[in-house]
């Protein structure tokens, strides 16, 4: 497992390489009460801000330069979240999967930090074949990567025996005749509705709009706090301040904005933290009294507020 020193060194190396004022994270592990969370990196990409957020213009980003590279791009990480509490161990999302870094969408500048989720899991001492549950926020490719039918040579995917927990609306929104998104989807996928508890202290929160069945996962720390793994309900810390900024891939702009506003309001409660998988190196944090994203600090790790 990477130590804090190794994480810091990796971050500094990334800064020297790409000139970022905010970097993509290496593996990290944090403990909140009975809950242990580990970020499992898989890839990183620099985005073109005004294309990701088409309602914004270049001038809107001047106050947010600390979230950007010196070249004016917005770093976003791709990966998964390992959740451990008592006898529960599960993964939220499954990374980007095998990528060359060469095939770019129009809103992407470059894949600058390509990592490998299987290697990251191994560094955490986790055998993916032993994981029994993978919960998905939604079906976009950078969240289903290593669980897809073509992820590895084994058609069962990297996670050979896991059950797939998926928002009911996500399963129902699949286009007629489309092939399965996940390996063995018909047999292995469990349709989950809002409020369903899939494991001790892990329950679903329906936050549609980015996709029809987009689902956040609320994690109980056991000491009065909560962590919300909210997937793509927000893509960057700036959306806490600008929930009206839709994302280019939102399927329903109005519904996505309603979900973002619900999320920001929830994260502003005492003792509630959020995990934003794409939030560069500010993935874990909360919304402060002024409505801004406040990244996790060592003081947060010491106990319940």
UniProtKB/TrEMBL annotation:
Pfam family, one: Lactamase_B
Entry's Gene Ontology molecular function annotations: hydrolase activity; metal ion binding
Metallo-beta-lactamase domain residues: 77-278
Keyword presence, Metal-binding: yes
Alphabetical keyword list: Hydrolase, Metal-binding, Zinc
PANTHER family: QUORUM-QUENCHING LACTONASE YTNP-RELATED, QUORUM-QUENCHING LACTONASE YTNP-RELATED-RELATED
Family the entry assigns: Belongs to the metallo-beta-lactamase superfamily.
Name listed for the protein in its UniProt record: MBL fold hydrolase
Species: Streptomyces violaceusniger
């Amino acid at each position: 497992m990477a130590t804090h020193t190794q994480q810091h060194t990796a971050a500094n190396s990334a800064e020297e390489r790409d000139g970022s004022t905010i970097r993509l994270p290496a593996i990290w592990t944090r403990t909140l009460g009975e809950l242990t969370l580990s970020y499992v990196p898989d890839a990183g990409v620099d985005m073109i801000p005004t294309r990701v957020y088409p309602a914004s213009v270049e001038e809107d980003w001047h106050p947010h330069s600390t979230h950007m590279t010196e070249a004016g791009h917005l770093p976003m990480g791709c990966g998964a979240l390992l959740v451990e509490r008592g006898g529960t161990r599960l993964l939220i999302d499954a990374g980007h999967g095998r990528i060359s870094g060469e095939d770019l969408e129009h809103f992407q500048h470059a894949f600058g930090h390509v990592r490998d989720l299987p290697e990251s899991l191994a560094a955490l001492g986790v055998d993916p074949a032993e994981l029994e549950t993978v919960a998905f926020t939604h079906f976009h490719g950078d969240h289903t990567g290593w669980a897809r039918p073509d992820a590895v040579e084994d058609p069962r995917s990297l996670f050979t025996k896991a059950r797939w927990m998926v928002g009911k609306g996500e399963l129902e929104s699949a286009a007629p005749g489309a092939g399965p998104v996940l390996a063995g989807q018909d047999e292995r996928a469990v349709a989950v509705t809002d409020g369903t508890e899939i494991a001790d202290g892990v329950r679903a929160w329906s936050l549609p709009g980015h996709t029809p069945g987009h689902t956040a996962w609320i994690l109980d720390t056991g000491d009065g706090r909560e962590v919300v793994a909210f997937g793509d309900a927000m893509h960057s810390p700036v959306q806490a301040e600008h929930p009206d900024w839709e994302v280019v891939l939102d399927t329903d702009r109005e519904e996505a904005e309603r979900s973002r506003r619900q999320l920001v309001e929830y994260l502003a409660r005492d003792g509630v933290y959020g995990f934003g998988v794409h939030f560069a190196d500010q993935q874990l944090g909360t919304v402060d009294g002024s409505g801004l994203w406040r990244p996790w600090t060592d003081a947060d790790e010491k106990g319940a507020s």
